[in-house]
Specification:
- Helix content is 0%, strand content 60%.
- A six-stranded mixed beta sheet has the order 2-10-9-4-5-6, with no helix packed on it. It has a four-stranded antiparallel beta sheet with strand order 1-3-8-7, with no helix packed on it.
- The protein is mainly beta.
- The N and C termini lie far apart (37 Å).
C-alpha cells in the first residue's frame, strides 16, 4: 500500500485548507484510513479516520471543524479543514490500517498563522 498526501500549505487563523491522500494498492475490504498530525516537539496524534464501512471518527480538538470524506472511485481520502487555529499547525500524515498492519504516507506541512 502506498499513501501520498497533498494539499498542505499556509493559512490564516479562521481559514481553510483541504488535504488529499491518494491510496494505491489498497485492496482490502476491511480497513480504516485517515490522518494523524505532529506539531513541533509534540507526539503524533490522531486527527480523523474513516472505515471501509463509512464510519468516521474525529478527535475532540477538530470535531466540528474538520471533515473527512472519501472518493472510492479515485481511491482518495480528503480532510477538509475549516476554522483553522494556530494549534492546528503541524505535519499531517495519511495513515491506513488493515490486517493488523499500519501504513503511513509522507507528511504534508500545514502552517496556520495567527
Amino acid at each position: 500500500v502506498q499513501l501520498q498526501a497533498f494539499g498542505g500549505g499556509l493559512a490564516q487563523a479562521g481559514g481553510s485548507l483541504r488535504l488529499s491522500c491518494a491510496a494505491s494498492g489498497l485492496t482490502e475490504d476491511d480497513y480504516a484510513i485517515g490522518w494523524f498530525r505532529q506539531a513541533p516537539q509534540k507526539q503524533r496524534e490522531l486527527v480523523a479516520t474513516v472505515t471501509s464501512t463509512g464510519t468516521t471518527y474525529y478527535a475532540e480538538y477538530v470535531k466540528g471543524r474538520f471533515t473527512i470524506s472519501g472518493d472510492s472511485a479515485k481511491n482518495t481520502v480528503y480532510l477538509q479543514m475549516s476554522s483553522l487555529k494556530p494549534d492546528d499547525t503541524g505535519v499531517y500524515y495519511c495513515w491506513s490500517t488493515f490486517s493488523f498492519d499500519d501504513y503511513w504516507g509522507q507528511g504534508t506541512v500545514v502552517t496556520v498563522s495567527s
